Amino acid sequence: MSALNERKLPLNGSRVLMLGFAYKRNTSDLRESPAEPLAHLLLANGADLRICEPHLGIARIPVDAPTVPFTAEELAAADAVLVVTDHDVFDWELVRAASRYVLDTRNVVGRGTNVETL
């Protein structure tokens, strides 16, 4: 929320792309995943949330948010990209290049003026 505020954007109405929903990289394991509570928090605060999770079918995502493919267009359309799961299918150079802002919770995107790590 603070990163969007710094960019003069409220969370309410901002488009947030969540990369990954599974707990473990390269799996469909949802047990103990931090993604679900994060998604509910973002939605409760009015974010326009999109989820990109290549290892889960749409019926398995336990929140009411659309799933989208991993594309440069989806990255560019997002006000913020939130890296939750570091699946190998994600092109991290593309994430860094095409995104306006990235919050990288897995430290996989690399350095960039638009990248913040936790």
CATH architecture annotation: 3-Layer(aba) Sandwich
Task: Give the amount of beta strand, in percent.
Answer: 15-25%
Number of beta-strand segments: 5
* Name given to the CATH homologous superfamily: NAD(P)-binding Rossmann-like Domain
Roughly how much helix do the residues carry, as a percent range?
10-25%
| Strand arrangement across the biggest beta sheet | 2-1-3-4-5
Anisotropy-based shape: globular
Supply the helix-strand structural class. Answer: alpha/beta
Please describe the biggest sheet, giving its number of strands, its sense, and whether it closes into a barrel: 5 strands, parallel
Average pLDDT works out at 93
**Oligomeric grouping of the chains:** single chain
What would you note in describing this structure?
By secondary structure, the protein is of the alpha/beta class. The chain has one domain: Rossmann fold (3-Layer(aba) Sandwich). Helix content is 24%, strand content 17%. The chain is built from four helices and five strands. It has helices at residues 2-6, 35-44, 72-77, 92-98, and strands at residues 15-19, 48-52, 80-83, 102-104, 115-117. The chain has a five-stranded parallel sheet. The longest helix has 10 residues, at 35-44. The model has no long low-confidence stretch (mean pLDDT 93).
